[in-house]
Every structure is written in structure tokens, then in C-alpha cells.
């Protein structure tokens, strides 16, 4: 798996210092600064402590089976802002390099908020998932022609990979942050249902 985060700290320097501090008990394989500079902190073959309590497509404890990329951004607590174009280009290039080395399915390129929807919001609704997918990194939906009923939402979320033991609005908000960022309210409106169906179909392909 490949998991994308934001640093959620006031600066990249502060974030890297924390990620390198053994006492913090947190780490990642890579950090991408706002100017596009990439820092390699942990070899890909070694476990980094970036995912925490996590679940995706039936697997848990995802530190053991994932590569983590921290993207410098202050996050929702310190003045969340758009990710610069240079930074997104560097993230895209880094992801493509990783995908060339590891057979990671597109559905397993996820946000921290996807694998820990009750704890995390990152990298959030301003992250350019659509742009990444246009360059071969991850999935982006083309809305389904079929409109599922609201009652189908839990099954669709499970088919995509989300855990099923959390309140539906929490899971829907996590899905929206990744695949419908224009509306992050945890409501199964028509647009969200259409995107759920589209991503579930792509995940099953």
C-alpha cells in the first residue's frame, strides 16, 4: 500500500525533526516539502510508523505493509491551505517511482483519512487526488450511470476498502475527502452515491 499524509505542523523543518526523533515514535519513508524537495527518511524495505491504528480492504496494522509519504502542509489545525503545484508534481513523480518498484494496486493508494477515518483528516479535501490519477497515480471516478439507493452506501464503502464498524457519516466524510472534496459533510447525497458506485466498480475491476 501507499499512504499519503500531510504533516500537520507549522513547518516542514519542524515536521522532519519530529519524524527523526526516536522519542516521538512516529516516522515516514518520505517527506515532500512545499518547494518540491523530497527527503528520504526510512528505506522502503523497512517499516515506518506512519499509519497507526488502521484498516483497509480487510487488513489492519498497515505500518507493516505500506509506504508512507508525508506532504508538508500545516493541516486543519494550523491553517490548512492548497498544496503548491511544485509540491504536487514532486509527489506525483515520487509515487510513480514507488509504483515502478512495487506492484501496488491503484485502489491501495490511499489517504491517511481512508485507513483511519475516525482519527484522521489528512491529506484532506485540498489535496489534488484528481490530478494524481490523471497521471496514473491512484483512482478518480467517472460517475456511474446507475444511481444506487442510500441504503447501498455501507456495502459500497466496504467494497472499496473502508472498515464497517464506524458510523456511516464518518465513513462518508472520509470518502468525500478523497473522492468528492467539493462536499465533505458525511451525507449520502446523489453525487456522493454516484461516486461511491464508480469507485466500487473500479476497485472490483
UniProtKB/TrEMBL annotation:
Keywords: Cell wall biogenesis/degradation, Hydrolase. It comes from the Bacteria. Residues 1-124 form the N-acetylmuramoyl-L-alanine amidase domain. It holds the Pfam family Amidase_2. InterPro entries: Amidase/PGRP_sf, Amidase_domain, NAMLAA_amidase_2, PGBD-like_sf, PGBDSf. The keyword Hydrolase applies. Its EC number is 3.5.1.28. Gene3D superfamilies: Peptidoglycan recognition protein-like, PGBD-like superfamily/PGBD. This is N-acetylmuramoyl-L-alanine amidase. It comes from Paracraurococcus lichenis.
Amino acid at each position: 500500500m501507499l499512504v499519503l499524509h500531510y504533516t500537520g505542523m507549522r513547518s516542514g523543518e519542524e515536521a522532519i525533526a519530529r519524524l527523526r526523533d526516536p522519542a516521538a515514535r512516529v516516522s515516514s519513508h518520505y517527506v515532500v516539502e512545499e518547494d518540491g524537495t523530497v527527503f528520504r527518511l526510512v528505506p522502503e524495505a523497512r517499516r515506518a510508523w506512519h499509519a497507526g491504528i488502521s484498516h483497509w480492504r480487510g487488513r489492519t496494522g498497515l505500518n507493516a505493509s505500506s509506504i508512507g509519504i508525508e506532504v508538508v502542509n500545516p493541516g486543519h489545525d494550523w491553517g490548512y491551505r492548497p498544496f503548491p503545484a511544485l509540491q504536487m508534481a514532486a509527489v506525483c513523480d515520487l509515487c510513480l517511482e514507488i509504483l515502478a518498484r512495487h506492484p501496488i494496486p491503484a485502489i491501495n493508494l490511499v489517504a491517511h483519512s481512508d485507513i483511519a477515518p475516525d482519527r484522521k483528516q489528512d491529506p484532506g479535501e485540498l489535496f489534488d487526488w484528481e490530478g494524481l490519477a490523471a497521471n496514473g497515480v491512484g483512482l478518480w471516478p467517472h460517475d456511474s450511470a446507475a444511481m444506487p439507493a442510500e441504503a447501498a452506501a455501507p456495502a459500497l464503502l466496504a467494497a472499496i476498502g473502508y472498515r464497517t464498524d464506524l458510523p456511516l457519516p464518518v465513513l462518508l466524510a472520509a470518502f468525500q475527502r478523497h473522492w468528492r472534496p467539493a462536499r465533505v459533510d458525511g451525507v449520502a447525497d446523489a453525487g456522493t452515491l454516484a461516486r461511491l458506485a464508480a469507485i466500487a466498480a473500479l476497485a472490483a475491476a
